[in-house]
Amino acid sequence: MSVWTLCVRPRFQLFVRPPFGSFKIAEAWSCSNNRSGGCVHCSVVSRKKIILALLALLALGGLSLYLNRDSFSRQAIQISHRVSPWLAQAPRGRRPVSESTGNPVTFSFDRYYRFNRIRVFVASEIETNKYAHPLWDLTSESNSVPTGSFGYGSYLRGMHPAVKNARPDPLEPGVKYRLVVTVGDQEGRHDFSTTPKRPLAAR
User: Fold this and answer.
1) Domain spans of the chain?
2) Residue 160 to residues 97, 108, 116, 118, 165: CA-CA distances in angstroms?
3) d(CA 56, CA 140)
4) Which residue from 153, 117, 147, 108 is spatially nearest to 135, judged by alpha carbons?
5) Residue 21 CB partners (closer than 8 Å, separation 6+)
6) Measuring CA to CA, which residue among 168, 158, 166 is closest to residue 97?
7) What burial letters (b/e) apply to 54-93, b meaning 16+ CB within 10 Å?
8) Quick one: which of 91, 97, 88, 101 has its CA closest to 155?
9) Would you say 178 and 191 are in contact if contact means Cβ atoms under 8 Å apart?
10) How far is the C-alpha of 155 from the C-alpha of 1, rounded, in Å?
11) Closest by alpha carbon to 190, among 176, 182, 179, 201?
12) What is the pTM of this model?
């Protein structure tokens, strides 16, 4: 363990002697006689210089916190969406997931998240009623898989409907919806809408 030695030299200058050398930090002065008649050197440091040193340390600490502010603050969950008409065509031999009149919507995120809950509301309802009924509601206790994108109504590994066997309601074109995702104690929101499906060409 390193030991720092504080010493006062005859010229009344205060030095600090670390293990690797010594350097002066302030002037020291005054001398008084003790009972035995000897002289005692007092390490009286200038108050002004102490204040300046403390201010310099505070300035450096503030600069360090500012430069590393991103490490201490949480970044908001960034969400975007894309209307994907080409996903509306169901694979051969399969029926569409829902009878929605709107095109499918895909959501993308700035990074992968372990979602605790995913909900979609009609925006006008959630703005006036915090207990609005979600059109789509998935939840996870602890084992959701990191996900960077998903489609409305799709299956996500490690998540399940909040109400057993519940299915997502179909999206309608021209209606403003709101996606609300929860990751730990963070919450992200994103408004979106979809467009009308084009009728399938006759074969």
Assistant:
1) 5-72, 79-192
2) 16, 20, 10, 10, 9
3) 50
4) 153
5) none
6) 168
7) eeeeeeeeeeeeeeeeeeeeeeebebebebeeebeeeeee
8) 97
9) yes
10) 58
11) 179
12) 0.59
Going residue by residue through the chain, which has 203 residues, state the pLDDT in tens, using 9 for 90 and above: 444 444 444 444 444 444 445 444 444 444 444 444 444 444 445 777 888 888 888 888 887 776 665 555 567 899 999 998 877 654 443 344 456 789 999 999 999 999 999 999 999 999 999 899 999 999 998 788 999 999 999 999 999 999 999 999 999 999 999 999 999 999 999 999 999 987 655 44
Which tokens go with 28? 């020291």
Residue 165, Ramachandran bin (φ over 0: left; ψ between -120 and 50: alpha; else beta): left
Tokens of 86: 């080409």
Tokens of 142: 């602890």
Which DSSP letter does residue 25 get?
E
> What is the Cα–Cα distance from 57 to 29, expressed in whole angstroms?
25
Largest distance between two CA atoms of the chain: 117
3-state secondary structure at position 178? strand
d(CA 167, CA 159): 13
